[in-house]
Amino acid sequence: MVTHTRDEQLITETSLQEYFQNSVSDALENQKVEAAADTIHYVVNLLTSFSRAEALFERTRDGVMIRPLALLYAEAAEGVTPEERNRALRRLGDVALFISGVFSQSLNRCVVDIDYYVAMGGSAYSHLSETMRATNHGRTLSEIYCELASKFVAFVDVLSEVSEGAGCSNDADVLRQYEIWLRTGSARAAEKLRAVGIHPSRNASSRLRH
Length: 210
Known about the structure:
Elements: H1 6-31, H2 37-50, H3 53-56, E1 58-60, E2 63-65, H4 69-78, H5 82-102, H6 104-107, H7 114-133, H8 139-150, H9 152-166, H10 171-184, H11 187-195, H12 202-209
Antiparallel strand pairs: 1-2
């Protein structure tokens, strides 16, 4: 069995972050989108995080899936503490931005189209901007979320260009490959996932099977 040391994992993540930093910077320039450095850093970190399969997909009774935005919105509405509500809103905004940008071509085959994701994601970031502004340490985050909300469609275009450069497939294919890998440990499925920038973790596979 192949094992990965912590140093190897850090090197992989650092390489991914550098790749996304360069890709996002190029896309911003090509799309003529101006953005604050902190916002760019946030988007790069979002892409790096979601390149790990376990950060994006969840194992449920219905199979492997990305939690629907409506459920994330319900979590935010029902959150007992501000931290819980903000965590759910951030997840909602991040997932909406990622799906809109990376898997936009497949959304036209869904019950809801890209405008739903744009509206939900922009609203989540806008609300986060307002709530974070009221905290002593949240001014920087508030400005990031405000820019993401006001330029949501522009950032969708940026992520679309990044994903096209990476040769990303549609979400149904990616979900199926991840489910195959979870169930069987298939090296071929893992390689297909890595080819679209998603890196399955053996630890995540073990956790999700229980």
